[in-house]
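HUMAN: I'm a chemist; might I ask for a sequence paired with its C-alpha cells?

ASSISTANT:
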Amino acid sequence: MGRAWLGTIGANPDVELVGLVDLDVDLARRSAAETGHGEVPVATELAGLEVDADAVINVTIPQAHAGTTQDALFAGLPVLCEKPIAPDVATGLAMAAAAEASGALLMISQSRRYFNGFQQFRSVVGDLGAVGTVTCEFFKAPHFGGFRDAMEHPLLVDMAIHTFDAVRALLGSNPVSVYCDAYNPSWSWYAGDAAANASFTFAEGVRFGYHGSWCAPGQETSWNGSWRVSAERGTACWDGDHEPTAERVDGSIKVPASDQAPEQISGSLAEFVDHLRRETIPATEAASNVVSLAMVEAAVRSAEEHRPVQIADVLTQAYDLAVSTDHDQRVLAVLKSWSVLHKVGLAS
C-alpha cells in the first residue's frame, strides 16, 4: 500500500510528497525513486524529518496506526490513515480522542466508497424510498500466504470492514445489532474461519445480510461484492464492477450517469485535500468511522459466542477499556468528556 500511495500522490496535482518515514530507509528510498519522487528526504520517525509539511498519510500496519497518528496529530498535522482505524475499537476511540485533543483532522481512507459505480448505486437507492433489505455476496478464492492464512477470522477481520463500511455509506444509517455465523469449509487453506453469514439490523429496521467466503473458487464475485437492495419503490443491484441496474414499480430503469470522480485511494486523497481546504468534516472522520470497526468486532464476538450482539454494547465496553488504559493526559481528558454513543453517532 505504501507504493500504491506513492503512485497516487504523484498523480495528484494538488499534493506534493515532501518526506517519507519508514523503518527500512533503503526500501523507502528505492520506492520513492521507482515512483518518481527522486531524492525526497527519508527518516525512521516523523520527528527526524525536517520538512515543511501540511499533512501525513499513515500507511503503517494497523498495530502502528495509533502511535504514528498521535505523533502527527500533536505535531499539528492532519492525518489520512489507512483502514482499519485500529486493531480494536478501544484503540480507535483513543485515536479519535487524540484528533479532538489536537484539533487536527483524522480521516480514515475507506477506499471502496470511492468507486463511481458505488456512487451511482447510492444515488439509485436514495431514489427508491424506504429500504427494507440489503444483501451483499462476497465470494473470492485468494491464496495470500503469510499472516492471513493463520488468522482466526481472516474474512471478517481483514476484508469485511470494506463491505460493512460501505453499507453504512449506502444507507446513511448505523447498525443496531448483528448475528453472525462464521465457519471454515473443509477444503479451506486458511487456519481460521474463512467464511461467514452475518445479519445486521440497522436503524429504522433495515436488514443487511452479508454472505461471504475467501475460499470460494469459481464464479467469483467482484472484490466489491454483489449487492441487491429491495425498497418500497423498486429494486437496485450492483455487481461491484459495472454500472448498477434498477427497476422501479413505475417500470423505469434509469440510472444516473457517473460523475467520473477519482476512485479508490485517489478518491480518498482528493476528499481529504478538499476537506482540509474547506475546513469541513468528512464522513469517514475518526469518531464516526469507529462504528465500521465496531461492526467487525461485533460480528466476530457473535460468531464466537453464538448469540446476537448489540453494537452499542461493543462500543460502550470498548470505551470503558479506553478510559482505563494509560493514555496521554490530553487524550484521556477528551475521552472522559464524551458520551461515547453520542460521539460516534449511535445516539441522537
Remarks:
- DSSP finds twelve helices and 13 strands in the chain.
- The first strand starts at residue 20 and ends at 21.
